[in-house]
Amino acid sequence: MYKRTIFQSFKLALDGIIFVVRNERNMKIHLIFSAMAVALCLVLKVAPIEFIFIVFAIALVLIAETANTAFELLLDFVHGDRFHPDVKLMKDIVAGGVFIAAANAFVIGVVVFGPRLLGMTMSLCRI
User: Fold this and answer.
1) What is the model's pLDDT at position 44?
2) Interhelix angle for 25-44 vs 85-126, to 10°?
3) What string of DSSP letters covers 98-125?
4) Stretch 62-89: mean pLDDT, rounded?
5) Chain Cα centroid distance, residue 100
6) Which of 26, 57, 80, 86 would staple 105 via disulfide (CB 3.0–4.6 Å)?
7) If phi over 0 gives left and psi between -120 and 50 gives alpha, with beta otherwise, what is residue 80?
8) Is the model's pLDDT at 1 over the cut of 70?
9) Do 102 and 30 meet the contact criterion of CB atoms below 8 Å apart?
10) Residue 124 scores a pLDDT above 80
């Protein structure tokens, strides 16, 4: 069995991440929203525990998207270009997992950012 060094393992993992970022439109969208959420954390000076929740929500979405991409590639490899309703169902299920992770991140974002943004809006309206 081939033994990899730790650095080779990291490089292979990074290659996989780069592939997903370059080839998956939804990963690019997730990364844009992730950057916006982190920037908003810095601007609004959220508490460290809230920042941790945001980071975990981001990580969950990115992990789900990479798993979704890998699973879809595997199904395409095994089943080829032929349409099969079971393959479609499996892809839909895994995409549903990404949706759940993204909805979770959205709810966490609303809970963390909502009161602050609402307070800012109310302050601006009083001026």
Assistant:
1) 95
2) 30
3) HHHHHHHHHHHHHHHHHHHHHHHHHHHH
4) 93
5) 11
6) 57
7) left
8) no
9) yes
10) no
Using an 8 Å Cβ cutoff, are 21 and 28 in contact? yes
Question: The CATH number of 6-126 is which of 3.30.2010.10, 3.30.429.10, 3.40.50.360, 1.10.287.3610?
Answer: 1.10.287.3610
Residue-level pLDDT at 120: 82
d(CA 87, CA 48): 42
Rounded Cα gap, residues 26 and 24, in angstroms: 5
Q: End-to-end CA distance of the chain: give it in Å, rounded.
A: 70
Cβ partners under 8 Å of residue 16, min gap 6:
66, 70
How far apart (Å, rounded) are the C-alpha atoms in residues 33 and 35? Answer: 5
Give the angle subtended at the CA of 119 by the CAs of 117 and 125, to the nearest 5°.
105
Section 33-59 average pLDDT: 97
Predicted pLDDT at 32: 98
Domains of the chain, by residue range, sit at: 6-126
